[in-house]
What we know:
Layout: E1 2-6, E2 9-13, H1 16-28, H2 33-39, H3 41-45, E3 47-50, H4 58-62, E4 65-68, H5 76-89, E5 93-96, H6 101-107, E6 114-119, H7 128-140, E7 145-149, H8 152-156, H9 160-174, E8 178-182, H10 185-188, H11 191-204, E9 208-210, H12 222-232, E10 237-241, H13 247-255, E11 260-263, H14 266-275
Parallel strand pairs: 4-5, 4-11, 5-6, 6-7, 7-8, 8-9, 9-10, 10-11
Antiparallel strand pairs: 1-2, 2-3
Amino acid sequence: xxxxxxxxxxxxxxxxxxxxxxxxxxxxxxVAEAELHARFPHLKRGAVDYFPSQAATSEDVAALVDxxxxxxxxxxxxxxxxxEEAKQYSFKAVCVNPSYAKLAKAELQxxxxxxxxxxxxxxxxxxxxxxxxxxxxxxxxxxxxxxxxINVGWLLSGKLxxxxxxxxxxxxxxxxxxxxxxxxxxxxxxxKIIAQATTLALLAGVDFVKTSxxxxxxxxxxxxxxxxxxxVGNNCHVKASGGVRDxxxxxxxxxxxxxxxxxxxxxxxxxxxxEN
Length: 276
């Protein structure tokens, strides 16, 4: 991967090895090269031009943050506290387990803060039908966004059609809400497999690709974010999640193509902004 800056615009190029992976992955789920290029012209050019998000001011940063609490031990009071902090700092969203969707929606009533709920979390190994039903119920309970975990085991087994169908089912079940596909890049390790996962999610119609659950396989890495952005171009968003705990880390992720940040350290990040 390579890139260059023209003013505030960033050009990010995709190497031939990754373009080959993207085309092969698309072909395996029935998308021919001509259709791929028609839907995503930047993949024909081998480069994307985009305008990076800003992270200069407190307002810039708050607008990127999904303020998160996903621990199994999270109580109602923890979720209420999360929502109060989200309102205090004007975070973009809160991210909670689906059993707390109704509570978070009620706590945030009258604000612009969105409610995101995870799905198939954190393993991604539920059946497709169960994932779709979980997403559908969360949307009915007030979720504006669904953060689903892809089936990592299927991907590593080479079952690309099944991974695509799994993501597509959740996208359909979640309408009209936004869907983020969590790729769990730390478990995939190989950049070419991350390219496969990103391609499948893009073709399935997600609104975001997301790096990590933050549970057990490492967090967001700049190289992964950059690869994901180069593949999705301006056709969907990139969320960096896991291990983003200070303003320096936020800015590294934004510099490499992220336009949403998932973190349980939102208040710490904002405190660091005020110190600067």
